[in-house]
Design goal:
- The protein is an alpha/beta fold and 325 residues long.
- The protein folds into 2 domains: 56-70 and 157-316, Rossmann fold (3-Layer(aba) Sandwich); 74-144.
- It has helices at residues 30-43, 74-89, 97-103, 107-113, 115-126, 131-144, 160-171, 184-188, 191-195, 234-242, 258-265, 298-306, 313-316, and strands spanning 57-60, 175-183, 202-214, 217-228, 249-252, 272-277, 309-312.
- Helix 11 (258-265) links the parallel strand 5 and strand 6 (272-277).
């Protein structure tokens, strides 16, 4: 049974305003009912579980929760493309095996080389550029580059059921935040456009940055190296540093989101934890325990005992993509 006791709430008792389906891309069933029941009870002033609007905070992972992450996260796919493009203009940048592998699109070799190799690729593709120029580059790439297996541009590979959930929760007085291991400025390049979530409500990994005056112009420049990784135990830290209070709703899809759900659902009052289980190999990608990207082990093992909703993508979603299917 979920941490929030849904069995005692009659779905037929929803107010008239809620009779229009707020989640049309979700199939009828326990998953959809439990989400709606939670939202309705915490927003009903007559409910013992009522939560004031100021405390209605929901946090969402991004990769694999709001948009796809296979076979590579979008940010790593972008990084490989940028290294390749820069190497075409200046082959001398390929000063290591990791960068040569990136230019050849061989992420398997980079992954095998370990986290330092990945950071080297990110440094070359993300550093020595202003945040504004970086976000413009990311936006152009996301909106024009085709994903290698779906044929859709990356920006269209957001999950329609989740964008509906974001909108529904905001309509009910929630503030929605993204809490992701992806870099802050990579997500800020497009999240307002595709999710209606402003840059100020993005919590992500933070790279180093430097202030200088260039030709009389005050300038910020992204530098190599990382200041903060917003993953695993870093997610609760990032949330508290950024928001200053514990949310009441958290959604993720991997064990990298485990501590975020654990912390959010440990609070007082009505709480909701949700994991997206990628079970749909026909419309999206099927993966969990053995996946090199987005592995889900502990979440699968403990979701039921912790009262977290495990969403079965194949069974619970009528539609997957926000773009054309």
């Amino acid at each position: 049974m979920h941490r929030f006791v849904i069995a005692s709430i009659a779905v037929f008792a929803l107010p008239l305003a809620a009779l229009a389906d707020p989640l049309p891309s979700w199939k009828a069933g326990a998953a959809k009912d439990s989400i709606i029941a939670f939202v309705e009870t915490v927003t009903d002033p007559q409910s013992e579980n009522y939560v004031p609007m100021s405390d209605r905070i929901a946090v969402f992972d991004n990769d694999g929760t709001l948009w796809a992450e296979q076979p590579l996260t979008f940010q790593l796919a972008y990084a490989l493309d940028m290294v390749r493009q820069r190497a075409e203009d200046d082959p001398s940048i390929l000063g290591s095996e990791a960068l040569s592998a990136a230019a050849n699109g061989d992420f398997a070799a980079i992954r095998e080389a370990g986290s330092e190799a990945i950071l080297e690729v990110l440094n070359v593709s993300h550093a020595n550029v202003t945040p504004t120029a970086f976000m413009a580059s990311v936006h152009e790439w996301l909106t024009t580059t085709e994903h290698p297996t779906s044929g859709m541009v990356y920006a269209d590979m957001t999950y329609q059921p989740m964008t509906e959930l974001l909108r529904y929760m905001r309509d009910e007085g929630f503030s929605t935040y993204i809490v992701s291991g992806g870099s802050l400025f990579f997500m800020r390049a497009i999240t307002e456009e595709i999710y209606n979530i402003p840059p100020s409500q993005i919590i992500g990994s933070i790279g180093n940055m430097e202030y200088s005056v260039v030709d009389g112009e005050p300038t910020l420049t992204k530098q190599s190296g990382a200041l903060f990784f917003d993953r695993s135990a870093g997610k609760p830290v990032g949330i508290m540093n950024h928001i200053g209070q514990r949310p009441i709703f958290a959604a993720g899809n991997t064990d990298g989101d485990f501590q975020m759900l654990e912390w959010v659902t440990a609070g007082e009052g009505a709480r909701f934890g949700m994991l997206i289980h990628h079970t749909d190999g026909e419309r999206e990608f099927a993966y969990d325990r053995e996946s090199a990207v987005g592995s889900l082990n502990r979440g699968l093992d403990e979701a039921d005992t912790r009262g977290w909703l495990l969403v079965d993508m194949a069974k619970d979603w009528r539609r997957v993509w926000s773009g054309a299917e």
